[in-house]
Amino acid sequence: MSSRDVILGRIRDALALAPPVQQEIPREYRTGRAMPKGELEELLTDRLVDYKATVHPCEAAELPATVARVLREAGCKRVGVPAGLDDGWIADFDGEVVVDSPCVSAPQLDSLDGVVTGSRVACAETGTIFLDGSPDQGRRALTLVPDLHVCVVDLSAVEVNVPEALTRLVPERPTTMISGPSATSDIELQRVEGVHGPRNLHVVIVR
Amino acid sequence: MTRVALPSPAFPPRAPEGAGNLRGSESFPDAAHHELANSQLRRNISNATHTIREKRLQVTGELPDWEQLRDSGSAIKTDVMNRLPELLEQFEAAVTARGGVVHWAQDAVEANEIVAGLVRETGSEEVIKVKSMATQEIGLNEHLESEGIRAYETDLAELIVQLGHDTPSHILVPAIHRNRSEIREIFLNEMADVDPHLDDDPASLAAAARRFLRHKFMTTPVAISGTNFGIAETGTLGVVESEGNGRMCLTMPQTLITVMGIEKIIPTYADLEVFLQLLPRSSTGERMNPYTSMWTGVTPEDGPQSFHLVLLDNGRTAALADKIGREALNCIRCSACLNVCPVYERTGGHAYGSTYPGPIGAVLTPQLAGMHGSHDPNSSLPFASSLCGACFDACPVKIDIPSLLVELRHQKVEQAAFGSEAAAMRAASIAMSSSGKFTVAQKAAGLGRLIAGKKGKISALPPPLSGWTDARDIPKPPKQTFRQWWGSAEGQREIADARRQAHE
Mean pLDDT across chain B, nearest whole number? Predict the structure, then answer.
């Protein structure tokens, strides 16, 4: 008998020895909440700043200039972008732009000064941004290896809390949730920003 | 007519002895005695638990629906245990459909063999590891080493524990018993190419770990992880972390091997809305942990192109076979119960002798690995608690840990029917069976005043009662029993006074 059959048999025996009581699942917690755009932006900004991310709000027309300014101020000369990123977003950046593809190696990613991507959805209540590998976000390694990540969040894709944000995701896509830059509290519980992921997270919120 | 008897269900086996880390070498009281002597450890742990406790209360207090989330989380996990066979089969089918390979392991020995075999097939002699309770439970690193495979822990705290040739002392912050100067010493002694001028600032130490592991992340072809949940509906797995070492391990290598306890299932993707709110807030006291990675099978051109999932029993089905005890399988490993426990706070995690310390460890460990008689260290775990109930209040999925501890104590006493406790209880039941015998027994108790002597305390009794007096003094018995007092003139006078006052 395979271990699979043995284990499933053991579970059935266990449930026969101690028959379960039918369990109803209460769902009284809050779902489907909405909030005016201004409040959403304020809440998301507050949470992101609390997580040591840097927030740059702008109007849609100001996006290329904002991205270019953030990259320039951070001293970035070579930045990576996913293949499906809107060219217009980085039109004002005067450095070198490397378009990612699966054949770009990890050490090549490591040599980039930063990366610019879009995002799928964000959750204001927790300050979380969800990346799901869509063409404007790229594969997971791209937003992981470079030390600086400029992430563009459109205010129309910001939800109040986790339940609302999850409804916008496609489960089968590889999904990364980020809440601020990499951090650890493993040494005497003192928070240190940046261990293995990007140590700098800049969020450009487009109104 | 032919009569065929259906096979009667058998009680599933516990985790095997001698494999993995579910049993210490000495009883909890003995181990606690050594640990209590370490004042540095007690200071570090007390500081950490108090800090996390306050953060947790602050962020759970922010949510007006916190109790409703706990109710849902508890009910979802109970429903999972009720429907485990069908959910596991659904999960297996979904993972397989997306290009993952599912393996089933009856116990630690089989799981270790499966993982070592999968690593050998890749030809690699090194693996990088995400912090994982399941692989710690089965002793995977030690097994891989015996097979000539070097496992590198990549979580900073696990790395500190591994380089320090030490064992974890907390579920969430495994190196919480170490302070910065100890960590600096470990790094200087154990890391190749470390800067000899390294100072003990946490930022410098974290940077040293970053340099040490960066090359490993880029070049090691195999990673091993645990998982925080497996979603039956979609075959999705998830790892919740902070540092990005998890993202690195789950993304950079060619092959990913994940070890998952069969109880980690949740039914639907939408159920994440409950657990992603409960887990980070209960665990680190954050609204959300910095990084969460979710993956389903294999994604072409993104991340590992070979994915293996090992589903682990190792005593979980034995826990499931106990109507009361199965509640412990609902645990989502947040460690909130550790941080509020007055016993854990003083002894630290090593005293529990198991991968799972603290209140949840005291119920989960004996259930997974059994309590084999009074000499088994696990038999002492249900008594490693004051039953104050703080753990029940803190648990995000409302596991009634105090009641489970009492049930395990009951089981242990039943097992040891001829032990000293049973003898004492038998004597008590004989004494209480008639008023004449009870009076005689009470008079005999007056002897205790002689033993107590002038200091008014009994501090040493012969075995088996020494177990009690080793840890505490017994106050001397009163001069007269309640019955003697009731029958005396003084007693009658006081009762008459009390009656009068009640009527006034």
Answer: 90
- Coil, helix or strand at residue B129: strand
Residue B222 CA to residue B125 CA, distance in Å, equals 9
Report yes or no: A101 and A141 within 8 Å, Cβ to Cβ: no
Q: d(Cα B272, Cα A128) in Å, to the nearest integer?
A: 14
Reading the block at residue B470, the tokens are 């080793």
- Which of B276, B311, B327, B411 to probe by mutation at the A interface, max A CB count within 10 Å? B276
Q: Which residues of B touch A4 (CB under 8 A)?
A: 104
State yes or no: pLDDT of B466 exceeds 70.
no
- Spatial separation of the C-alpha atoms in residues B169 and B155, rounded to whole Å: 14
Nearest CA in chain A to B311: A4
- Read off the pLDDT band of B164 (50, 70, 90): very high
Contacts of B217 in chain A (CB under 8 A): 106, 196
From chain B, pick out residues whose CB is under 8 angstroms from the CB of A47. Answer: 287
Report, as an integer, the average pLDDT of A1-19: 97
Q: Does A22 touch chain B (CB under 8 A)?
A: yes
A10, A29, A194 member nearest B65 (Cβ)? A29
In B164-239, where does DSSP find H-type helix? 180-190, 202-219
Reported ipTM = 0.96
Contact B293 A176 (CB under 8 A): yes
pLDDT band at B172 (very low <50, low <70, confident <90, very high): confident
Contacts of A179 in chain B (CB under 8 A): 286-291
DSSP line for B217-230? HHH--EEEE--SEE
Q: Average pLDDT in the B475-498 region?
A: 84
Question: Alpha-carbon distance A95 to A79, whole Å?
Answer: 8
Contact A88, A70 (CB under 8 A): no
| Alpha carbon distances (Å) from B364 to B263, B265, B347 | 12, 17, 18
B466 within 8 A of B460, measured Cβ to Cβ: yes
H or E segment and range at residue A159: strand A158-159
Nearest CA in chain A to B291: A178
DSSP, res A23 = -
Q: A148 CA to chain B: closest CA distance, Å?
A: 13
Q: Which residue of A has its CA nearest to B49?
A: A189
- B170: Cα within 13 Å, side-chain hemisphere: 33
Residue A174 in contact with partner chain B when CB distance is under 8 A: yes
Interface membership of B172 toward A (CB under 8 Å) = no
Q: What is the C-alpha to C-alpha distance for residues B56 and B369, in angstroms, rounded to an integer?
A: 31
A145/chain B closest Cα distance in angstroms: 8
Query: In B, which residues are within 8 Å of A17 by CB distance?
Result: 9, 11, 321
* Dist. CA B62–CA A127, nearest whole Å: 14
Residue where the block lists tokens 């770009």? A104
CA within 13 Å, CB half, A142: 31
Question: Residue-wise over A56-69: b if at least 16 C-beta within 10 A, else e?
Answer: bbbeeebbbebbbb
Q: Is the pLDDT of residue B431 over 80?
A: no
Rg (CA), chain A: 21
User: Please, what's the b/e burial string for B14-34 (b: 16 or more CB within 10 A of its CB; e: otherwise)?
Assistant: bbbeebbbbbbeebbbebbee
| pLDDT tens track for B368-397 | 999 988 889 999 999 999 999 999 999 999
Give the pLDDT confidence score for residue B475 in this predicted structure. 72
H or E segment and range at residue B308: strand B306-312
Check: pTM over 0.80? Answer yes or no. yes
